[in-house]
Amino acid sequence: MTTIGFIGTGRIGGALAQLAVDAGHHIVLSNSRGPQSLHDTVARLGPHARAATTTEAAAAGDLVVVSIPVRAWRQVPAAPLRGRTVVDTLNYDPDRQGAVPEIEAGTVAPYLLLQDHLPDAYVVKAFSTVFFQHLPQLARPAGAPDRSALPIAGDHPPAKTAVAALIDSLGFDAYDVGPLTESRRFAPGTPAQLAHLDPDGMFAAPPRPASATELARLLDLP
Ligand SMILES: NC(=O)c1ccc[n+]([C@@H]2O[C@H](COP(=O)([O-])OP(=O)(O)OC[C@H]3O[C@@H](n4cnc5c(N)ncnc54)[C@H](OP(=O)(O)O)[C@@H]3O)[C@@H](O)[C@H]2O)c1
Known about the structure:
Elements: E1 3-7, H1 11-22, E2 26-30, H2 39-45, E3 49-51, H3 54-60, E4 63-66, E5 85-88, H4 94-97, H5 101-104, H6 113-117, E6 122-125, H7 134-138, E7 149-154, H8 157-170, E8 173-178, H9 212-219
The protein binds NADP nicotinamide-adenine-dinucleotide phosphate.
């Protein structure tokens, strides 16, 4: 089983943490307020979960999920993430999460911000297209006819293989869209970002499973 570090244990991080312990993985959770604030979360998740500082969570994970508001990107600890596979769930939403001057100035594309901050880590964009409440509702065993595919993108093939294995263990197929720059195809505002929403775009409505074929159509691949 894999040990997964979490930098950010909010809505999407928390939903992924639950799926991960359900799949038998070990998880190390962190947030901005420190390990003691995660006491109840760890108790609920059980013996495969523990809380730590962000630096400890980064160092402990075979894979490290970064799931924080984009505006906090500078606080992601770079040194312990050197040479590690990092799962980037981030979506840039300045109205709700605060603006990032570098993105607003066009110095860096929003979907490249974390890799830019962590040049020695292997960043794989994943889980950025699923509403957190839909994650457990869409998870299915391997081979289920209504299993959903989730897009991933990254520049390091072994890192993508590791993230695809994680995604499979959590109940989804991974769909490799290509290098990290190609994650623009499933960035906020694209049809692929809304793949699981009902036709009216209602987050409260039950999610729609989306197969790899359906996802490929929405990704507008060349
Ligand atoms: N919500 C979704 O359905 C969803 C889906 C896909 C992608 N995303 C993306 O995933 C990211 C997280 O979204 P969310 O909805 O899960 O946010 P959220 O519920 O607000 O949770 C954010 C988490 O990040 C932590 N955090 C904030 N600043 C931090 C820092 N400097 N160091 C360490 N941890 C820090 C928070 O800890 P404290 O509570 O201690 O501050 C909290 O655990 C966003 O970029 C979002 O666009 C969200």
